[in-house]
Amino acid sequence: MTQLSKSGAAVGEPGTPDSHAPTAFLEVRDLKVHFPTDDGLVKSVDGLSFTLEKGKTLGIVGESGSGKSVTSLGIMGLHTTGQYGKRKARLSGEIWLDGKELLTARPEEVRKLRGREMSMIFQDPLSALHPYYSIGKQIVEAYRVHHDVDKKTARRRAIEMLDRVGIPQPDKRVDSYPHEFSGGMRQRAMIAMSLVNNPELLIADEPTTALDVTVQAQILDLIRDLQKEFGSAVIVITHDLGVVAELADDLLVMYGGRCVERGPAEKVFYEPRHPYTWGLLGSMPRLDRDQTDRLIPVKGSPPSLINIPSGCAFNPRCPYADLPKDNLTRTVRPELTEVGSAHWAACHLSPEQREQIWTEEIAPKL
Amino acid sequence: MIRIPAATRPRTVLAYLIRRLGAVLLMVLVVLLTTFSIFFLLPKWAGQDTAVLFAGKATGAEQLEGIRQKLGLDEPVLVQFWDFVKGIPMGRDYANGGDVTRCDAPCFGYSFRTEEPVWDTLKDALPVTGALAAGACVMWLVGGVAIGVLSALRRGSVWDRSAMVGALSGVSMPIFFTGMVMMGIFVHSLGWLKIDDDLSGADGIDIWLQSLILPWIALAFLYAAMYARLTRATMLEVLGEDYIRTARAKGLGEPSVIRKHALRSAMTPILTVFGLDLGALLGGAVLTEQTFGLKGLGFEAVDAISNKDLPVILGVTLIAALAIAVANLVVDIMYAVIDPRVRLS
């Protein structure tokens, strides 16, 4: 079941438990999202696997174009809907949500899950909210898609949610328009809208990137509190390790459409085992670091997703690419190997080399 | 970022409407002033005597003097303007000594040619043009937007390509051409339709419809083609917006996403262009009325211009300007209804 084949009989039928059905709440297996373009096939996500349990938070970290957002839109089934003449994304692999396989499910089934079982918060709440409808109307709409209730009941629910996400005077502000809200308030409203149906999976795609620094922490606290309250599974997508450091239980670092390192958050954060993760950490401003130290950027630019470098996708930017023997980094793509308990990294460096570079070169600078 | 508390919003809307209404009144006044002065000055520049235009060249000097007196042509321009403006709501007496002619309100003066009150001409012509314009507007808006939306949703399909080629030819074909071809086919060759001179509706609604359906199509065709292209482009742009993705992420079905979210946004630019097109509509109406022989404002305007019938030209211009101003006011109100952000600025 690595192809999107309809001939696979009962295998992967939505809601039909079979031998493949995973036990995790969300399991993504070998997900590939490819976009055919005139210049070639863009491999935005190229074989991504992870699992997530209810009540847990997964942080997906990577730079622009690493496939973070494409992954989340893939889970939500938003690549295949409304493409209107554009060439469609090609998805393969498996996405299991609560025992249902989403890639082979009928679009109508996935639509019914969207907004109710899984919902999403977007990066820029100003452009993600419709400018012509009041905040209340947009939340009411989200509620009534999945609940057969009258407008009054839905409106009460919207006010209740606005109150819950900390919007003052919710019974008045429910009639405000997005342009009458500040950035932080808009994101709160967006969160209220995405949680109105008590979804079991919440995907937050760069939820604080478009916000003032002062508001960012508030929004992150809110997401954490709400998760505790609702017990949902949360995926936080960000390019900023600082955002997920405290929020996430697990971290997944993406590079060039693939996972290069994943594991428990404190492991990945304090004992990273992949040169790219080292780069990310070195380029991140930290309060506990000596002021005289400069930030170290990751050299070079993200790989072209049409011509992904052979071997390890990170090899043109990796300072240690020449260490492994036989030019291995440039010829063979490294697979994820376990480097600690539940801690995985995809790198050709030997455990000893990694240990040595980490303790001697990287850790002292951080 | 201006933040307006929700409680004050109704007043904001009212203030918006009052501002728009004020702008419309100002516009009407400016149109009144410019058209009047132009039509007063034109004969002067051309070296013509308005009294001669009224009475004909063979008239004696004494009679001309009487006419000047009666029409008030010997008064200063501003006085003449004031008498004219006052005459519209109050009526007016044209007097030369004991010879008094009462012109009842609304008084736009008398035609130089027929010596009938201008208002009688306008009164008959206005409903014809009104019906022509209103019907054509509805046709091109509904038709153009529907074709545009379908094209956007099926971008690159056979439907999209043929609709856009059709739209291109629609834009390139003049009204008198499409009008004459349609008339040739449906009226003269097939005989399905009859075109009646009397468009007052006295001959029954079916005759009225029969007479107007071809002019509607001819006038609407050009605009529908433009609106289809505009709608398609706007829809494609709107469908890429983040809030459309949000609507889908909520679990809304595609028809709701298109109707409630995409089309609603796409209406704003369409409405903007619509407001502008209403102003240019009279030009199209002139051609259509000439082609189909409808006695509307455009027909009367052309007739009056070729006869140098100044009062009629003035009357037609004013009525047309007023109609455009009112139509634009309606568009502005619709604008505010559609886009809440408009009410602020």
Class by alpha and beta content of chain B: mainly alpha
Strand % of chain A is: 15-25%
Taking all Cα atoms into account, the compactness measure Rg of chain A is: 21 Å
Along the chain, the helix and strand elements of chain B come as HHHHEEHHHHHHHH
Oligomer: heterodimer
Largest sheet of chain A: 8 strands, mixed
- Domain count of chain B: 2
Largest interface: A-B, 40 and 40 residues
Pairing-aware structural class of the strands and helices of chain A?
alpha/beta
Total helical segments of chain A: 13
Any guess at the CATH architecture of the largest domain in chain B? Orthogonal Bundle
Number of helices of chain B: 12
The dominant shape of chain B is: globular
Notes on the structure:
Chain A has helices spanning 68-76, 107-113, 125-128, 135-146, 151-164, 170-173, 183-195, 213-230, 241-247, 265-270, 275-282, 328-331, 351-362; strands at 26-37, 40-52, 57-61, 90-97, 100-101, 118-121, 201-205, 233-238, 250-255, 258-264, 337-340, 343-345. Chain A is α/β, with parallel strands linked by helices and 366 residues long. Chain A has a domain at 272-365. In chain A, helix 4 crosses helix 5, helix 4 runs parallel beside helix 7 (183-195) and helix 5 crosses helix 7. Chain A is globular and about 70 Å long. Residues 1-18 of chain A have low confidence and may be disordered. Chain B is mostly helical and 345 residues long. Chain B folds into 2 domains: 21-103, no CATH class; 118-343, MetI-like fold (Orthogonal Bundle), CATH 1.10.3720.10. In chain B, helix 5 (118-153) packs antiparallel against helix 6 and helix 7 packs across helix 8 (205-239). The termini of chain B are close together. The relative contact order of chain B is 0.13. The model of chain B is unreliable at 1-8 (pLDDT under 50). At the A-B interface, helix 2 and helix 4 of A face helix 9 and helix 10 of B. Chain A: It holds the Pfam family oligo_HPY. Chain A: Its main location: membrane. Chain A: Residues 28-281 form the ABC transporter domain.
